[in-house]
Hints:
With 582 residues, the chain is an alpha/beta fold. The protein contains 20 helices and 22 strands. The strands form five sheets. A six-stranded mixed sheet has the order 6-7-8-3-9-10, sandwiched between helices. A six-stranded mixed sheet has the order 18-19-20-13-21-22, with helices on both faces. A four-stranded antiparallel sheet has the order 2-1-4-5, with helices on one face. α7 (186-201) links the parallel β7 and β8 (205-210). α16 (447-459) crosses α17 (476-489) and α17 (476-489) runs parallel beside α18 (506-521). The model is unreliable at 439-443 and 572-581 (pLDDT under 50).
Amino acid sequence: MKKELTISMKGISKAFGNVVAVHNANLELYSGEILSLLGENGSGKTSLMNVLAGIYFPDEGEIFYKEKKISINSPADAYKYQIGMVHQHFKLVDTFTAVENVVTGLRKKDYQAIAESEGEKYQGYNLKTSAKRIEKICKQFGFEIDPWQVVNTMSVSEKQTLEIIKILFRGVNILILDEPTAVLTPQETQHLFKVLRNMKKAGKSIIIITHKLNEVLEISDRVVVLRKGEVVGDILTKKANEEILTEMMVGHKIDLNIHRSEVPNTGVRLKVRDLSLKNREGRKVLKNVSFDLHGSEILGIAGISGSGQKELLETIAGLNKNTEGTVIFHNPKKDRPVTFYHKNIKQIRALAKENKFYTKDQSPLDLTPINNKQLIKMVNDEEILFYEDEIIDLKGKKPIEIRDLGIKLSFVPEDRLGMGLVGNMDIIDNMMLRSFRKGKGFFVHRQQPEKLAEQVVGQLDVKTPNLTTTVKKLSGGNIQKILVGREISSQPKVLMVAYPVRGLDINSSFLIYKLLNEQKERDAAIIYVGEDLDIILALCDRVLVLADGEVAGILDCRKTNKLEVGLLMTKKNDKEENRSEQ
């Protein structure tokens, strides 16, 4: 049976200043169809859908609804044509119940239109009748939600469900979902797909904006691919595979296999025990977190958004106070020469009295008869070696104190401009933030950061007019490249990265994976926080699963799978039975 053409977008263009987000894009959508809109970050997917949803007005082009030309100037206009969009960032009132969120903004004529679309007589508005309608929608499509539950007690997946119900309540038949699985576990993703298939059977048209190839191939009937703002492909899913879609997205073939360096770990580098943290409201966001991190290891951190990933990394990096528990750093000093980089003469003499050093000829070191001039020569000639690793308690120390101890904790935060880079400073100055304290004057080391900036811009293909461009003028993906490149360049002993490939194209993402493996091979201990379980399991050696601030399990990435990790993310299995290792 031939499906009805519901939406046709022809020649759509949209620019923001000199930046062209969408150029001459054509798109068709049929009833009872799931269409995947695929493309890299910045390809124009969301901008094109924001035009259809009435959030942006196109500079050029036309939109047709059931072959009739229409004008959509606002989300309210979009609703007239049964079009609704669920965004990545939810638009809910936390202190309202589900039903209160659903009906917020509706007027009497909206309720009359809803009743008319259902073939019912309008009988007035109240929360009880609205709650019954929500329950009816849930039963029809397979949703699970309590209309009277307050939003701030809901899980992320429940909030997303509520956003979908909110637009279905308004009679929407064309649904646009922006990265709907980004915050879901594998089990929640499968449940969402089941619901979407039920909607498809009911004749609804669904557009999924995504960049996850495996999900595109699983759920969609057809795929439209965008690259640099233009539609470059429109293909039936049954005729596509990951290689074909990737080539459409980036313009050339690419190896999608993620390499994991197989090198033996070199012992404990970081020992975290019973780490707990309360937020400003007094709620525990970390609960007795314990784990070991080894040299030459990448430890993945998985969990539903808001499970404590951000707080864990910030606490280790010294950014949070009033924590409970311990973070012990094992500084790899054994058999290495002492330098004046972190130890002055007074500190060296004090440590020598504690038998922390020995000489090259394996003799015990006695500095009592040695004057400072002789000591300086011995240090410069690398004649004094550490007897064992330094063991340092990081608890309560500020980031600046941690660096003064010679501990290189490199931190790529979620908030790139809030915590990682300074938007009003240029690229060179942002590189200098890591090293300016080492000089006697503020500009002493500007030459070195300039070389580093050139290296990062060249290696990661950062799109910028020049090195003196302020960072805030760059795209999100290019900002991320600068931040990740700067952190990795410091050759840290412990490297912590949170969502390092968020906003990056496929080529740059794979380069970041390569750089992380190189750091692992040079004995760095790495913590990798990501949102894509496929990437975590392919890149990392072990994965630590956080659920509501607790460690639900630590698994060997070579021996586990997405379903097992997903169960731990929602704490649905028995912790005593899970295959965990400290």
